[in-house]
Amino acid sequence: MVNHEARLSRTFAALVDPTRRAILARLEREDGTSVSELARPFEIKLPAVMKHLDVLDAAGLITRSKAGRTVTVRLAPRPMRAAMDWLRRYERFWSASLDRLVTYAERKEREARWKGR
Amino acid sequence: MEGPMTSLTLVRRIKARPSIVFDALTMPEGIACWWGPDDGPVLVAETDVRIGGRFRVRFRMLDGIEHESSGEYLEVVRPTRLAMSWRWAGDEAIGESLLEFDLRAIPEGTELRLTHSRLPDEETRQSHQRGWSGSLDKLERYFQARGGGS
């Protein structure tokens, strides 16, 4: 459980950076892209891209494989799914809670107006 | 789901003035009426609504299982803003998350915005707010298409 949570924290930490999210979005369109292809649209140097890939790799969000001189990057969906599950659980919790909060607050408002007459 | 994928944002428009909504969010008798994912009862609601004060809410779900969350109030600005740290009891090894309520007066009453973010530090929170360029749905479809496991 703790390991699971530690992994989840790492996933979210990795996702927080816009360049890394852009890399994931690119992989979502073109899975199995080479590192040099991935680096092309960004205004940062290849070593910086490599650093981002290291973070994504450590978070388990991508896998890299080497064939000759080409390193191919692929999405690894499991950690992303865990992150989405976390968000969905809270979405259910808060959606239901807020619906009841609305009902409660609107009743209180009606009572306040009635008393204010 | 709205918002960037490292945090959850929900918005509700409520036909009640902001001070009434704020009190519903913070007073134990209010919390007891709405807190929880289903219609199971709130068993404990304690709040010490000031910066550095703590809250604790324990509820039982309809399946009989009890859950407790607690945290510390980080910002208290009645009736417009409330921010608190959040953690589930029994999960002390896990970092806290951040829960924020922003209330805005609108003609019919109040617009309430809830944000629950996984990562509590300021730098991270700001980078959440800069946003994600909207790929969540596509990514979700992608992962669904791939099926389970991997």
Please tell me about this protein's structure.
Chain A is mainly alpha-helical. Chain A contains 5 helices and 3 strands, in the order H-H-E-H-H-E-E-H. Helix content of chain A is 71%, strand content 12%. In chain A, strands 1-3-2 form a 3-stranded antiparallel sheet. The mean pLDDT of chain A is 86. Chain B is α+β, with helices and mostly antiparallel strands and 150 residues long. In chain B, strands 1-7-6-5-4-3-2 form a 7-stranded antiparallel sheet, covered by helices on one side. In chain B, strand 5 and strand 6 form a beta hairpin. In chain B, helix 1 packs across helix 2. About 16% of the residues of chain B have low confidence. The interface between A and B is large, with 47 and 49 residues.
The termini of chain A sit apart by 55 Å
Distance between the termini of chain B: 25 Å
Mean pLDDT of chain B: 80
Number of helices of chain A: 5
Q: Rg of chain B, please?
A: 17 Å
Average pLDDT of chain A, to the nearest integer? Answer: 86
- Main sheet: strand order of chain A: 1-3-2
Strands of chain A, total number: 3
3D shape of chain A: elongated
Uncertain spans of chain A: none
Tell me the structural class of chain B.
Answer: alpha+beta
Give the percentage of residues in beta strands of chain A: 5-15%
Poorly predicted runs of 5 or more residues of chain B: 120-143
